[in-house]
Amino acid sequence: MNIVLGVGGGIAAYKSALLLRLFTEAGHAVTVIPTEASTKFVGVATWEALSGRPVTNDVFDSVDQVNHVRIGHEADLIVVAPATADLLAKAAGGHANDLLTTTLLMARGPVLFAPAMHTEMWQHASTVANVATLRSRGVLVLDPAVGRLTGPDTGPGRLPEPEEIFAAAMALISDVPDATPVTEDAGSPAPLSTEPEVAAPAAVVPTEPAASVPDTSKRINGPLSGVRVLITAGGTREPLDPVRYLGNKSSGKQGVALAEAALAAGADVILIHAPMEVPAPAGASIQRIETALELRSATLAASATADVVIMAAAVADFRPANISTGKIKKRDNADDPIIRLVRNPDILVEVVAHRAAQNQKQLIVGFAAETGDDQGDAQAYAQQKIVRKGCDLLVVNEVGPGDSGDERVFGQDTNHVEILSLDGASPVQSDGSKREVADAVVHLIAQRLAAG
């Protein structure tokens, strides 16, 4: 495969060197086109050494080869990583003022953008519009990862990990019949060619990252066709020190089952997930997070354009007030450490409040893992919770050891839930596999949306 790797001018450019290595080790010929600004972060010599090819960003280099036309025509795939806000704007507007933008205009194969920028830039109305324009043209624009950015701020805007970008890129070309990996030595790569190649199996794609690639080509018409569904899943982890964290028993199975059920109903699914025991489903747009604060940033950003929000993640109610920079030591001559906790924000309540502030027509579904105590049973606490949270539906399961002593919900393949409605409709019960429970939830959502 002939791959063009475009590199934008951001600090995340260094990660693209790792992406380049993944492409070349998979046997593909890679032509790197850095923007002029990106060479302030990673020099041309690095790209030439890793790709084994000459590198330029000047349309007037090798004029006799008409590079600004030839490279785009002969590329089987173009990947731009990092894609800055400026590059996305230029691509959406059809600009052609350097070798990368002219190559993008000449592209006849699939194109993938992996954005990286500060949260405010990613969420700015101009960038949102530019991304929508590119996606409407069939371009794959990945959602940025959520986490620590260049400065002290945290939020959506990090470049996805190279392995995720690689998996997304390979998924785009996995069905191309002439996907023949290049076998020449790195020191003498084969020239870009328009000669037909002999068909060969596509490069092997790692299973887990491949799940982060939205497969819109097989979207079906169903009760949620055209509906944008945001789902959170997994259990958040709150760091204590570099090696320890506060966590919970969530496996992510119910959240993944909900994503699969929504996809089967024809929805466009965004899955924001904390660590899980199961892989994310193919066909969903994936964002990975760790902590409750990261989940909050990602959820509030993604919910702005969602028709349905399903909050199935097990979110830590508390986090350590201070995170130790070194491993907390166990010493015989010292007192045991005292860990002070602070309350995490209530993300579900914030999503509901954001909907009201924006006068947004949106269906919000909460999840509640409840236990009873001497002041009330799980159902009584759940009834109080749906009123307090203000979500439209609340999916309630009673957790803890069952009659046989086994865990009722966490980590299991089955579930028993009661779905409460804020409007006072009769509760709906579902019992069975987690996929059967997910189907029941999605069916109820579809009914609510159809009723207006």
Topology:
Elements lengths: L1 E6 L5 H13 L3 E6 L9 H8 L15 H8 L2 E7 L1 H9 L5 H8 L4 E5 L3 H5 L1 H12 L3 E2 L3 E4 L5 E5 L3 H12 L33 H4 L17 E6 L4 E2 L5 E2 L6 H12 L3 E6 L11 E4 L3 H12 L4 E4 L6 E3 L20 E3 L3 H11 L5 E8 L7 H12 L3 E6 L15 E8 L6 E6 H18 L1
The overall strand count is 19
CATH topology of the largest domain: Rossmann fold
CATH second-level architecture of the largest domain: 3-Layer(aba) Sandwich
Radius of gyration: 24 Å
What's the CATH H-level superfamily name of the largest domain?
CoaB-like
Net shape: globular
| Terminus-to-terminus distance | 49 Å
As residue ranges, the low-confidence spans are: 175-218, 404-408
Count of spatially separate domains? 2
Beta-strand content estimate: 15-25%
Strand order of the largest sheet: 12-11-8-13-16-17-18-19
Task: Please report the first level of CATH classification, the CATH class of the largest domain.
Answer: Alpha Beta
Largest sheet, strands/sense/barrel: 8 strands, mixed
The helix count comes to: 14
Q: Helical amount among residues, as a percent range?
A: 25-40%
The SS-based structural class is: alpha/beta
How would you portray this structure in words?
- The protein is an alpha/beta fold.
- The chain folds into 2 domains: 2-210, Rossmann fold (3-Layer(aba) Sandwich), CATH 3.40.50; 216-327 and 335-451, CoaB-like (Rossmann fold, 3-Layer(aba) Sandwich), CATH 3.40.50.10300.
- The protein has 14 helices and 19 strands.
- The chain has helices spanning 13-25, 44-51, 67-74, 85-93, 99-106, 119-123, 125-136, 162-173, 207-210, 253-264, 292-303, 347-357, 378-389, 434-451, and strands at residues 2-7, 29-34, 77-83, 111-115, 140-141, 145-148, 154-158, 228-233, 238-239, 245-246, 268-273, 285-288, 308-311, 318-320, 341-343, 363-370, 393-398, 414-421, 428-433.
- An 8-stranded mixed beta sheet has the order 12-11-8-13-16-17-18-19, sandwiched between helices.
- Strand 16 (363-370), helix 13 (378-389) and strand 17 form a beta-alpha-beta unit.
- The longest helix has 18 residues, at 434-451.
- The two termini are 49 Å apart.
